C-alpha cells in the first residue's frame, strides 16, 4: 500500500442526531487514520494531508430544542397558574361558608334577643297591672278598716260578733290581695314578704298588733283544732312557741302564706302542706 494512499473519509450523510453520536463518528475516523498510519511504521510516516470535515449542528435543531424548552416552561407556568386558581377558589368557598354560618348565628341570636325582650316587656306590664290592682284593693281595705275601727269605738264593751267577722274579712281580704308577691326573708311589704311579716301586716288592717316572728305568733291567742278553723285563724308549722312557718286560714279549706323564694306568696289547700296547729286571735 502506498504511503500516500488516500484515506477514505468516514463522513456520512447528515442526519438529525445527538451531539454524542456525531462526536463518536468523528472520533472513530480519527482513530482509524492513526491506526493506518501506525501500521506503515514510524520511520516512513508522512503527514496526513486529507482534511476531515467536522459535522455541524444545524440551526433547525437548536430552534427545536429551544421551542421544546419553551413549551415545557409554558406548561409548568400553566400548571402553577391553575393550582393558584384552584387554591383561591377553595379559599373563597370556605370564606363564603363561614360568612353564611356567622350570618345565620347572628340572625338566630337577634331573634332570641327580641323574643326575650318581648317576654320581659309583657311580664313587666303584667306585674305593673297586678301591683296596681293590689294597691287599689289595699286602699279599699284601709278605708274599710277605718270604718270598722270607728264602729268599734262607738260600742260599749267587747266587740260584737259582727265586728269580729268584719275584722276577719279584712284580714282575709288583705292576705288574698298579696298573692303573687315575692318572698324575701325579713320582708314586711308592700310587695315582698316573709311568712310572719305577711301575717303581721294582715292583722294590722284589723287594728291588731302581732309579734313579728312566727315563734311568738304561734302562741298569740287561743289554740284551736284544725277541724274547727275559722277565717282569719293563724296556722303554724312546727311546735307552738317554736314554729318555723305561719300563714292565714282564708276559709274553704285553704290558706294564704308567703311560702318561699321559689313560690312567693300563694293561696293553697291545706292538703298542699298540712299545718301542725292553729291559734285564734279574734
Please give the structural blueprint:
Elements: H1 19-39, H2 59-154, H3 161-177, E1 182-183, E2 192-193, H4 195-204, H5 214-217, E3 222-224, E4 234-237, E5 245-251, E6 254-260, E7 264-269, E8 277-280
Parallel strand pairs: 1-2
Antiparallel strand pairs: 3-8, 4-5, 4-8, 5-6, 6-7
Which tags fit this structure?
alpha+beta; 6-stranded antiparallel sheet; 5 helices; endopeptidase fold (from Nostoc punctiforme); about 280 residues; rod-shaped; 3 domains; two-stranded parallel sheet
Helical coverage, percent range: 40-55%
Basic shape: rod-shaped
Please count the beta strands (DSSP E, at least 2 residues each): 8
- CATH homologous superfamily title of the largest domain: endopeptidase domain like (from Nostoc punctiforme)
Could you tell me the mean pLDDT?
76
Per DSSP, what share of the residues sits in E-state strands of 2 or more residues?
Answer: 5-15%
Q: Work out the radius of gyration.
A: 58 Å
Provide structural commentary.
- By secondary structure, this protein is α+β, with helices and mostly antiparallel strands.
- It folds into three domains: 1-57, no CATH class; 69-151; 168-280, endopeptidase fold (from Nostoc punctiforme), CATH 3.90.1720.10.
- Helix content is 52%, strand content 12%.
- It is built from five helices and eight strands, in the order H-H-H-E-E-H-H-E-E-E-E-E-E.
- It has helices at residues 19-39, 59-154, 161-177, 195-204, 214-217, and strands spanning 182-183, 192-193, 222-224, 234-237, 245-251, 254-260, 264-269, 277-280.
- The strands form two sheets. A six-stranded antiparallel sheet has the order 3-8-4-5-6-7.
- A hairpin with a 7-residue loop joins strand 4 (234-237) and strand 5 (245-251).
- Helix 2 runs antiparallel to helix 3 (161-177) and helix 3 (161-177) packs across helix 4.
- It is rod-shaped, with a radius of gyration of 58 Å.
Amino acid at each position: 500500500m502506498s504511503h500516500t494512499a488516500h484515506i477514505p473519509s468516514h463522513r456520512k450523510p447528515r442526519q438529525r442526531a445527538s451531539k454524542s453520536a456525531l462526536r463518536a463518528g468523528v472520533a472513530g475516523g480519527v482513530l482509524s487514520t492513526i491506526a493506518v498510519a501506525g501500521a506503515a511504521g514510524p520511520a516512513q510516516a508522512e503527514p496526513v494531508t486529507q482534511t476531515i470535515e467536522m459535522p455541524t449542528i444545524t440551526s433547525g435543531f437548536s430552534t427545536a430544542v429551544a421551542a421544546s424548552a419553551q413549551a415545557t416552561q409554558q406548561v409548568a407556568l400553566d400548571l402553577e397558574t391553575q393550582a393558584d386558581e384552584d387554591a383561591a377558589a377553595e379559599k373563597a368557598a370556605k370564606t363564603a361558608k363561614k360568612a353564611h354560618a356567622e350570618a345565620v348565628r347572628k340572625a338566630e341570636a337577634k331573634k332570641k334577643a327580641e323574643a326575650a325582650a318581648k317576654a320581659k316587656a309583657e311580664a313587666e306590664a303584667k306585674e305593673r297591672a297586678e301591683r296596681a290592682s293590689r294597691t287599689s284593693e289595699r286602699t279599699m281595705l284601709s278605708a274599710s278598716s277605718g270604718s270598722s275601727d270607728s264602729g268599734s269605738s262607738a260600742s260599749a264593751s267587747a266587740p260584737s260578733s259582727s265586728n269580729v267577722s268584719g275584722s276577719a274579712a279584712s284580714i282575709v281580704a288583705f292576705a288574698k290581695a298579696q298573692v303573687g308577691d315575692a318572698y324575701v326573708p325579713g320582708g314586711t311589704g308592700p310587695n315582698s314578704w316573709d311568712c310572719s311579716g305577711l301575717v303581721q301586716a294582715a292583722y294590722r288592717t284589723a287594728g291588731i298588733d302581732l309579734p313579728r316572728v312566727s315563734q311568738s305568733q304561734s302562741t298569740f291567742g287561743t289554740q284551736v283544732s284544725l277541724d274547727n278553723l275559722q277565717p282569719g285563724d293563724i296556722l303554724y308549722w312546727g311546735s307552738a312557741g317554736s314554729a318555723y312557718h305561719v300563714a292565714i286560714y282564708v276559709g274553704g279549706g285553704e290558706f294564704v302564706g308567703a311560702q318561699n323564694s321559689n313560690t312567693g306568696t300563694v293561696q293553697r289547700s291545706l292538703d298542699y302542706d298540712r299545718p301542725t296547729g292553729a291559734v285564734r286571735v279574734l
